[in-house]
Amino acid sequence: MEKKKVVINEVLKVEDLRTYFYSYAKEAFIRSVDSVSFSIRKGEVLGIVGESGCGKSITAQSVLGLITDGPGIISGNIFLTHNGKTINLLEGLPDYVSVKTKRKAILEIAKDVTGWLKRSEILMKGIRGKVISMIFQNPKSALNPFITVGEQIAESILLHSSISAKKEAIDAAAKWLERVQIDSPSMRLYDYPFGLSGGMCQRVMIAMALSSEPALLIADEPTTGLDVTIQTKIIELLKQLKEELNLTILLITHDMSVIMQLADRIAVMYGGRIVEYGLKREIMDSSSFIRHPYTIALLNSQPTVEEIKMKERLRAIKGDVPDTITLYRGCRFYERCDLKNDRVKKKCKEAEPEMIEIGVGHYMRCYLAEG
Amino acid sequence: MKYTILWKPILKLVLREFFIAILLLLSVSILIFSILKLAPGDPLHIFINIQTQNPEEIAAIKREFGLDRSIAVQYLSWLNNLIHGNFGNSFRTGRPVFGELIKVGVNTLILTIGSMIVTLLIAIPIAVISSLRRCPFLSWGLTLFAYILSSLPVFWLGYIAIYIFTKKFNLFPFLSAGAASGFRINWIYFLLPIIVLGIGNGSISEIIRHMRAQLERVLSEDYIKAAKAKGASIWRHSFKEGILIPVTTMIAAKIPFILGGAVVVEQVFNWPGMGRLAWQAALDRDYPVIMGITIFAAVVVHLGRLSQTIVFAFVNPQTSEKGEAA
Predict the structure, then answer these.
(1) Which residue from A minimizes the CA distance to B234?
(2) pTM for this predicted structure
(3) Which residue of A92, B46, B90, B97 could cross-link B292, Cys pair, CB 3.0 to 4.6 Å?
C-alpha cells in the first residue's frame, strides 16, 4: 500500500471511506457511505450536512468503529493524528469482499465481519473516548439510566486520565459539570439521568466527552431531540467550549442553522457521497455564485424571518432521498435537481460527475460547475 | 461513591407487598381447604382400617379431630389456630405440623436453591453467548442443547441418573441409605438430585429465551453504544438492566415450578423433604399437613416476588421513586 503523506495539523483525514451493509432481502449492498473523503484540521469544526438517510451518522460511527451490524464492508483509510503520531484506524483490516449474491458468498462476509470487529476493537482501544469522543442525539437515551451522572463522568475520567482515585475523579466530574454551565454541580452529581432535562443531559454528555480532553469531538446531531431554545443554548455552549479548549469538532447535522453558527468547513452529503466540500465562507458567501444545486435547495428550505412573517409555505426539496442500493449511472440528485439545464442534462444522466475544484479548497460534484 | 437510595418508597413497596401477601395467603388457604374437602377420600381411613367399624367410635374420632363440624367452621378454627401460630397436629403422626415442616423444609430448601443455581449456571452463559451473535453456530448448538435438556421429564431423568451414576458406575450413594440412618448432611447425597432437578425443572429454555431477549434489547440501546464510544465496558453498563433484572425476574417466576419439580425429585430420590411429605399427606388426606405445606409454599413463592420487587427498587431508581404507581 502506498504511504500517503499527512499534513501535520490535520487531526483526522478520511480517504475513500466506504461503509456498505449487505441486505439479505435485496441480495445487494446498501451503500450508506460511498467513497467519502474529508479532513479536519486542528481547532476546526467540520460540519457534515444532509438530509436523513444520507450517511452522515454512519460516517461518524465508522470513524469510531461503532458499526457492528454485519455483514458488510467498511474500507478506506482513516488517518488520525495525535501527539505527532499518525495511525490508520482501518490499518490492516481487509478492504473489499466481492459478493456474487449467492448464499455461500454471503456467509463468507459474515464470517469476515466477526474477525474484522475483533481487529477493529484492538485498534480502537485507547482511542474511543480518549482521543476521539462522541456526543449523541437524544442525550436522555445515551446516558445509562441506572447510574448517576457523576459516576458516569467519573468513569470516563478514571478510564482516560491519570486520576485513579474515585474521589478525585468525582471532584473532577463536578468541575466539568461546572464548565458546561450546570448549576450546583456538586448536587447534580448524584442525580440519575431521568431526573434531568434533555438539555441538562446533553450538557452532561458534553462534559463526559470532554473530560478526557480528546483530540477530536464527534457531535452527532447534538441538538436533535431538544427544544429550540435549548438547542440554541447547546450550540452557544459548544461554541464557547470550542474557543476555550481549542476543540476540533466533527459536527453532524441536518440543520443548516447549526452549521451556519458552528462550522468552519462544510461537507454536504447526498446519497452516501459528498457533493460539495469547502470552507463555510466560500460556500455560504453570498458573492459566490457557484454552489451545488443540493446545497442551494438545502439553504432554500430554511425559511427566513420575513417568509415566516408572510406565512409562506416552506420550500421543501421535492421527492425523496434516493435509496442507496440501486447503482446509478448518472448524478444521484438528478431527479430532484431544479437547476439542470439542456446543456448538461445528457451528461447528468449518463455519468456521475467527478469532484472538481472550483475554488481554493472548494470542491463540487456537478457538471454545472464545469465551464 | 455515595448512592442516593430512596428508603421511604422502598419501605412503601415492602408494606404494599406485605398486604398483598396476606390477601394471597387467605385466598390460597380457602381454595386449598375447599378442594381438600370436596375431593374424594377421608382421613378417617388411617385410623379406622385397623380398628372396628363401630359407628359410635367413628363418630368419636370424628369429634376428636373436629371433622364433624361444617367446612366453614373447620376452616375458621384452622385459621384461628394459624393466627395463634399453631399449624395443628398431623393426623398421621400426631406431632405438630410446624415442627415437621421445619425439619423437612430445610432439606427442600437445599434442594431447590441448589437446583436453581444449577439451572442458572447452565442458562446464563448460554444466554450471554447467544445474545452476542458473534458465533451463530455455537449459540445455535448451545440453545438446541439447552432446549433438549429442559424437555427431559424430571422423573425419567431422575431414574436414568440413578441407573447410570449409582447403579452402573457407583459414583453416588443411594439416598435412602442415608435417610434410613438419620440423614446426616453429606454433600454427596445432595449432588445428584440437585443436578437432576436443576436440569429437569424445565425452566432452562425459558430463562435463556427471556435473558437473551432482554440482553439483546439492552445491548442495542443508545446508552450502550455511547458507553462503547467512551471506551467503557459494555458489560458494566448492561449488567443491571441486561442481566440482574432478567435473572431476578426469572428466579421469582420459576420458584413455583421448582417446588413442583421437587415433589417428583424427592419421590424419585427418596429425599426426606417437603415434597415427599406433601405426597404422603395427600395420600393420607392429612389435612393439617397439606394446609401447612400450602401456606409454606405460598410464603416462599411470595418471598421470591418480594425480593424481586426489592431488587428492582434498588437497581432502578426510577421505580423506587414512582413506588406507589409501579
Answers:
(1) A144
(2) 0.80
(3) B97
CA distance linking residue A238 with residue A255, whole number of Å: 15
Alpha-carbon distance A354 to A366, whole Å?
A: 7
Cell 398421621, residue located = B92
Segment (H or E) for B168: none
What residues of chain B lie within 8 A of the CB of A170, using their CB? 1
Q: Where are the domains of chain A?
A: 10-43+56-124, 132-254, 265-316+328-369
Which domain range does residue B239 map to? 7-27+107-321
| Domain at A132-254: CATH architecture | 3-Layer(aba) Sandwich (3.40)
Q: Please count the other Cβ atoms lying within 10 Å of the Cβ belonging to residue A39.
A: 20
B315 near A CB under 8 A: yes
* ipTM value greater than 0.85: no
Partners of residue B318 in chain A, C-beta under 8 Å: 145, 192, 194
In a domain, B85, yes or no: no
Task: Give the closest of B4, B223, B230 to A141, CB-based.
Answer: B223
pLDDT averaged per 10 residues in sequence order, chain A, 371 residues? 58 89 78 89 91 87 80 82 84 58 54 67 84 90 90 92 88 92 88 89 93 92 87 92 92 88 91 88 71 83 77 76 75 81 80 83 82 61
Residue B228 CB coordination number (10 Å): 22
